[in-house]
């Protein structure tokens, strides 16, 4: 909002000034980059020299430790030291690569909970990696070796690293590796900055970092600034760590600040989670042999007027992005028989039962711990309320003569998308049975 208002103000005073428009463009780009960077959290983890793994958050401007998230332990209390961290924008998962001398499961691909530091192991790489990177345009994870020049892709389901090429550099020393927003790979080996070919693994020299120590881990922020964890292997104590940035045109490294925590060996930016976006909900019912028809419940005032067989109803919730996981579903009245992602990947189906006791009431569905493919998360998603009022074919919240007349007017007509509400008993035809059912509900209404 502030960027927009500033832009409007500048446009008024520089409408005919070409240099003013250039200044506006530069200012807007800078403001947007700063805004994007502020919406991320920078995580770092210990793991060098076999130390206990602990997860921290850092201030990317000062290197200050903002929070100690916790020890990197699994559910059984086993500790993991990290050699790399990486957030996957495709599935919203925060991955870790354990160090070759990790106290538990060395050289493993793991999942790290950024809110609790809980570690869930996936599987062994089969090799020792110095860092991992994920191409945000494809979701492919890459790794480089600390013992040879091999270049790998990593199976996210099993953790297995498969050689796909060679860097031509010998073993990676330090070996920070990261992909920018376009998917281009960059890294630091020894005291030089390189770009990497994702197909062959071949490294191309950009330039010397002129940093006194190795860069052990790296990642890009949202503005595509290359950050690194520098420390050890050079002039400084093996345990000290420094936050640096690297110019990818020249290779030159710049000190941001020293970090008060030693033995850090994993670094990653994670976007601030936004809530998942529910964009629609329908009540879907198979109408005898005439077809499947939906009543849109998105408005918050809609009425489901059909008598679900056995008190069963199917709700389909649609989201703006594909879903990756939903813990559970519950309903205010009645019960949930089953629920699952589908029929489309951005939809969630909830099958309700026991709704016969919920007639003439408003109801809602609640989903718990919903995650989508863009990394968004909601602890709870509450659906719009809808009314269940059997026989309310007009959808006005009461069953009366208007509904009876409307149902009579369609009696004997084939069921279509324009009159399916009048097939109240959902048997595939509009007949005396529907008229009788509506008459039996006359006088009922929603609160």
Keywords:
12% helix, 31 strands, 2 domains, single chain, four-stranded antiparallel sheet, mainly beta, Immunoglobulin-like, 447 residues, elongated, Neuraminidase, five-stranded antiparallel sheet
How does this model look, in words?
This protein has about 450 residues and is mainly β. It has 2 domains: about 40-270, 6 Propeller (Neuraminidase), CATH 2.120.10.30; about 280-440, Immunoglobulin-like (Sandwich). About 10% of the residues lie in helices and about 40% in strands. The chain has 4 helices and 31 strands. It has a 5-stranded antiparallel sheet, with no helix packed on it. It has a 4-stranded antiparallel sheet with strand order 3-2-1-20. It is elongated, with a radius of gyration of 29 Å. The two termini are about 40 Å apart.
Q: Averaging pLDDT over every residue, what do you get? A: 89
Please give the number of β-strands.
31
Task: Predict the CATH topology of the largest domain.
Answer: Neuraminidase
Instruction: Assess the beta-strand content as a share of residues.
Output: 35-45%
Query: What's the name of the CATH homologous superfamily of the largest domain?
Result: TolB, C-terminal domain
Going across the major beta sheet, what is the strand order? Answer: 22-21-24-27-26
CATH class of the largest domain reads Mainly Beta
Name the structural class.
mainly beta
